[in-house]
Amino acid sequence: MSETITKPKIAEELLAELQTKIEEEKQVILHCCYQSDFIMEEKIRIWSSTYLIDRNSDHISKLIHFENISLFPTWTDVPVAKEYWFTLVFAGLPKGCKVFDFIELIPQNGGFFEEGIVRNSSDVYKIKLDI
């Protein structure tokens, strides 16, 4: 006598909810290079109002972690005439995202902005920033 093994069925709603949770766990990493001025010492910082914006949807990924840069209101010193690298970690982008923008929305001039970043499979990027 052979036993028949049946796979359990998972409700479609539950599968959809689990997929959303998986998407939330993904992260996008930006390794950012800031070139300081050749004349004087500069200072930089990042604001919590820094986002990745999917160009094809209304999705916005929030900044969740930062390394080697201070969060507003504290400043980070940048050596004269040198490249300065820092890392930003954002919540994941949707699976369908192909191109996104990096924007620091701040109430003054000089926020970081890089548009048209083409998505790659690793979601790890190196970008050079200008203010």
Q: Can you tell me about this structure?
A:
- With 131 residues, this protein is mainly beta.
- The chain has 1 helix and 9 strands, in the order αβββββββββ.
- The strands form 2 sheets. The protein has a 7-stranded mixed sheet with strand order 8-7-3-4-6-1-9, with no helix packed on it. A two-stranded antiparallel sheet has the order 2-5.
- It has one domain (27-129).
Overview features:
131 residues, 1 helix, mainly beta, two-stranded antiparallel sheet, seven-stranded mixed sheet, elongated
Short description:
By secondary structure, this protein is mainly beta. It has one helix spanning 12-25, and strands at residues 27-35, 42-44, 50-54, 60-67, 76-78, 83-91, 99-104, 113-118, 124-129. The strands form two sheets. It has a seven-stranded mixed β-sheet, with no helix packed on it. Strands 2-5 form a two-stranded antiparallel sheet.
Strand residue percentage: 35-45%
Global outline: elongated
End-to-end separation in angstroms reads 75 Å
The structural class is mainly beta
Number of folding domains? Answer: 1
From the alpha carbons, calculate the radius of gyration and give it in angstroms: 20 Å
Can you tell me the residue ranges where pLDDT is under 50 for at least 5 consecutive residues? none
Record the strand order, biggest sheet.
Answer: 8-7-3-4-6-1-9
Strand segment count: 9
**How many H/I helices?**
1
Topology:
Elements: H1 12-25, E1 27-35, E2 42-44, E3 50-54, E4 60-67, E5 76-78, E6 83-91, E7 99-104, E8 113-118, E9 124-129
Parallel strand pairs: 1-9
Antiparallel strand pairs: 1-6, 2-5, 3-4, 3-7, 4-6, 7-8
